[in-house]
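Re: [help] complex structure
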Amino acid sequence: MTGMSIRNPKQALYVQFAAVAKALGNPQRLELVEHLAQGPRSVDALATKLGLPIANVSQHLQAMRRAGLVTSDRDGKFINYRLADDSVLAAFAAIRVVAEHHSAEVERVVRGWFDRHDDMEPVTRDELVSRMKEGLVTVIDVRPADEFALGHLPGAINVPLSELDSLLPDLRTDREIVAYCRGPWCVMSFEAVAELRKRGFSARRLEDGLPEWRAAGMVVEPVLQGTQR
Amino acid sequence: MTGMSIRNPKQALYVQFAAVAKALGNPQRLELVEHLAQGPRSVDALATKLGLPIANVSQHLQAMRRAGLVTSDRDGKFINYRLADDSVLAAFAAIRVVAEHHSAEVERVVRGWFDRHDDMEPVTRDELVSRMKEGLVTVIDVRPADEFALGHLPGAINVPLSELDSLLPDLRTDREIVAYCRGPWCVMSFEAVAELRKRGFSARRLEDGLPEWRAAGMVVEPVLQGTQR
DNA sequence: AGCTCATTCAATAGAATTATTGAATGAAGA
DNA sequence: TCTTCATTCAATAATTCTATTGAATGAGCT
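Output below.
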């Protein structure tokens, strides 16, 4: 901040734009974005989810606030952070697309971890909507229960990945299962589909996660009226 | 690269996505993106445009190539770099939007430099199209001649900012002037509009630059057939 | 073969980023 | 007022990023 001397407005603008990109240019902070896209969270809750020291998460969040990615407000003795804007999720999505196109590496990672690379094609949003109308699919939300509670697809049932094994007997074997989680590349849905297929189920991933579904203006349950939290 | 140990696929993906954002997280590299959005360029040409040492620009370009932002191919003794994808421009745009929303600083920069903050509202693309049909506007492209030559709006005349003063007498005073340049925040069009107004013209900026116009699928002159360069 | 010249490489120093530690802050509740 | 506890601050070391310099590469040309 002190060593930076800006000579012209053009430079000043690039510095501003670069600051936003820089704030997104860190794996931990991207993971924070993905979690905050599920709903507002306290520093403590985020640190638990990511398995990182609280002070570390606090600093990342402050860096993100400085760049305009998140805002915060106090609730009792907790401070809740949330994404500043839908534009933040859009920027994350745009960056993901660039990485996918340069996908040699991204695809290698996914395929390297989940050997079944046949028919990993995801279900599109439109496709899912029409199949839901026909009642042909079971939609499972593989996120943890607390995230499910903040909002989920209409009619979806919560099958956290950690409890997939124990809940398997409850799933119908005569219908296709569509799994989704936090976002297009959220690995939990990859793992759930791989596991389900190993057990003989017909299963696919939804191309998006809940935040994208919500951002597309689709209905989310439970429908909360009044102030959105 | 060597000190990085990745334990799980989730982490590996965030690292990939973060690498893309990191490559965009530098003012100089963003300026390179904006210039490359006008058309392919050699290292030398870019270094001249930015006023930076060639070796420095070369290193930035290599970093961008590693992140999948640009590609390069040799032409004689020059190596031409170009944007890898439309998605790169889209990502840049998305980042700009985030910065605009957090606009306290961005807007302050623009307003601080150009005191006329009344009616700096830009002309939208649709608005310009309909007014062009009616023949009500003079469209000027304030970029340097070499960029204009690679492609420009139909019917636009090239008035490089550096030559604005000397070309002023050629401009009609009875029609509104719409100026555009490299992108939505390219400062040359701001400066051109400010100067034109000072001289009594009725002038506004186009909301976008040429790359956005092209990306929207609009006609660009000259229309080149065959291999796009 | 030898020369030219655009680009890349290699080495360096200075600056910024990151994770870690422990202490400080400050709001809530007793 | 005192205690609790979520969060922030401050200081540090390790790593990474950045700009700069001069040498090396390697394709085109004579």
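Chain A has two domains: 9-87, 114-215.
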